[in-house]
Amino acid sequence: MRLSENDFLELLKEHQNIIHKICRIYTYDDASQKDLFQEISIQLWKSYPSFEGKSKFTTWMYRVGLNTAITLYRKNKKTILGEDLAMLPELKAYEEYDDTKEIQIRWLYEKIETFSEIEKALILLYLEDKKYIEIAETLGISEVNARVKISRLKRKLKTMLK
Amino acid sequence: MNKLDALKKEWKNQKFDLQLSKEELYGLTQKKSISSIKWIFIFSCVEFFAYLLFPFLIPDYFEAFEYYRSIHLYEFSIVISILGYAILSYFMIQFYLNYNKIKTSDSISILIETIIKSRKSVNKYILYNLGVFIVFLTVVLINAFRYDENYIHLLNQDVAGQGSIIKMVVVIIIIMILVLAVLIGFYYLVYGRYFFKLKRHVQELKQIED
User: Fold this and answer.
1) Which residues contact A142 (CB under 8 A, 6 or more apart)?
2) Residue of B nearest to A15 (CA)
3) ipTM score for this prediction
4) What is the percent of chain B where pLDDT is above 90?
5) The domain containing residue B101 runs over which residues?
6) Number of neighbours of residue B180 by Cβ within 10 angstroms
7) Into how many domains does chain B fold?
8) Is the pLDDT of residue B163 over 70?
9) What domain range includes position A77?
10) Half-sphere exposure of A83 toward its Cβ, with a 13 Å CA cutoff?
């Protein structure tokens, strides 16, 4: 399946939240987030002519996006915790902020920040409900090991939630 | 539904204020890339051409061959020069082929491996150059002491106990060490952190597989 420019842009627009999520996970300030968003868009554009439709468009997007964030993107100086996060009230236990969805999401991003770059990719794909086989192929590991690693990460997240 | 599942549901429903239009997205895709791969490519090309052009920047480069003739190294120097360009071509082709294999749609582990492999051909080339430089310099010095009157004179002086050869050898070794230290420092600054990070990822992926 060859995508026309128009189809590609249409799909990119529809699924842009994937890039937003990757940027929020892998960067720590607005400027870097914008830079990474731009770089991922460029890399997607450059590689879409070779997209043959063997995998789903979104699977391919995760792959290019994560590759860009992990290996291609030249990070600016790391700012410790974005200002937005620093403005948040202290979050102590899950029950205390259960009523605010946005705060839950922010809490999750804050926790994800403590994981390694490879683990971040695994967590993102798990949260996005990707199949183990897709996760394994995106990282270049076996399906069994992807399953084992994810269950460990899930356990770690669950402990954080307690 | 447990807490993690509830959180996962929220995650999937999260909204982003910034939603770009097709036109805005197209605008972004047309911007210049600032990726590490691009920088590695530019730097590697600069390195290749720097080594390629280096001899021509030395004012007496061609006159030097006459000197090599006088110390019976004319053929040797010509062979080394021709071999140098042949090996340069080999490494450039290797680098280009590996560079072309870099695809952002590959898996993370394959992508990292191809980046490291591509860069390795440049590193090998630099090491090759340093090796040839040291061998060439050593051979030239040995023959200079055998056939060049000035050097033979130095040798004779040394026999007389002035120790000038030892001083010269020490100076040459110090210069070589300094050149090496500067080169290593330079490469560490340019590539060290980035490749250290890539290797850490490789290790982590291997650990998952173990």
Assistant:
1) A136, B209
2) B19
3) 0.79
4) 17
5) 41-209
6) 12
7) 1
8) no
9) 1-81
10) 3
